[in-house]
Amino acid sequence: MLFSLFRGGVHPDGFKELSANRRISKLPIPGRLYVPLRQHAGTEAIAIVNVGDQVLKGQLIGRAGRGLSAPIHAPTSGEVIAIEPVVAAHPSGYSTKAVIIRTDRRDQVYPQPALVDPFIQDPETLAKKVADYGIVGMGGATFPSAVKLQSAVGYEINTLIINGGECEPYLTADDRLMRERPDTIVTGSRLIQHIIKAKRVAIVIEDNKKYAIAAMRNATEPYRDVDIVVVPTRYPMGSAKQMIQVVTKKEVPAGKLSTELGVLLYNVGTAYATCECLMENKPLVSRIVTVSGGAIKQPQNVEALVGTPLSYLIEHCGGTVEEPARLLMGGPMMGLVMPSADAPLIKGAGGVLALQAHEINQTESSPCIRCGRCVSACPMGLLPLEMANRARSQDFDSASEFGLKDCILCGSCAYVCPSHIPLVHYFQYAKGEISQKNAAQKRTEYTRELSEARRVRQEKEAAAKAAAKAAKSKRRKRSATTTD
Ligand code: SF4
Ligand code: SF4
Question: How much is the pLDDT for 4?
Fold first, then answer.
């Protein structure tokens, strides 16, 4: 099959062989789990347990917050010993509120309702269960899955794309998942198809994953409306807009949803988690994660509980050969630099990389030579240098006019820049500043709405009191007149 690919893109070295050929191992339960109440796009979940409570695996410990949010469940059984800020899986080193559980290593499961065949249930019931069980996008974006399912309501979905691209170097978690558990992924994909009433399913895999392609082809054999689509290896193929463009030959216009084109995209890990949720009553409390990089003694993929400290994951993989020059959550192109190995694993983390100095670009940056390579590499057709100049001088409005909102932070521009200008860092910084400003604005609006509602309520109460008082005095006067 011939593909017209997306514009731009790069071919970074894969380093996938470090972990691709070892089977997924199960990480032993750590002594303590640090379960952040925010592991998803949107607002923090609200803790519903107290210090001293005993919890069971899969028990709800944080209900979804206001607006876009997702609930959080206990990854295993044990005692809640604190609910307090811990170091977040974020380069800023800020802290995030977490439920800290001292595990009992018995992994006792919270009782769940009786199972019903999801294929005979209606889409609304299934979408609610996906929301209640805390399923979020496992490809890194961590968008609550139920919200995405709801976004399909009112649209005719022609193609459900299941993203098995995993184009980031080093990462092989999705590859191993497809090789070892293809039936679960296919069932999860068919369940999502059932919920959104998609006509067909396209499971898209890059051509560098031949064993995954074979296993998935075998698993999809019985289903005529589920196809395996093999695409060329090119970064950032796994990015939603680029994959949609390659598969459907349609570009999602800026500011539009893919559902408007009749397409919805989920990661293979999300399809897997959806199957476990709907077929086995399992909330999302663990994931497959690649632990790799030159500094890791035994790179491999492990199935780990969310809330596991990264240091514990690294120890399980034999520890490090030397102090890593950089610790990342995610891949080297789009991953986040971790402030410390104390940070906990979260639902969206596909990789933990400990890199040596020679694996990262530490060359001092030099002035731009106006070569235009960043422009050619940008898959979104942006002008990275212009955006970076504006972000550097804190002119965020102007950076936005140059398309900052459309930047997917793929890092292709920085990868090809001969002057080693850390372009993507400027974009991350600018996006962070803009989102903080927007959040502050929303908080102010919310506070204003609350005080306005309070004022209206107080005025109503005062008017009701005055009316009652007037009625009482009227009654009193009337009764005095009758007595006279
Ligand atoms: S990081 Fe942004 S500007 Fe740079 S190539 Fe990717 S999309 Fe384009
Ligand atoms: S690739 Fe680097 S040197 Fe070339 S134009 Fe872009 S920022 Fe300048």
Answer: 62
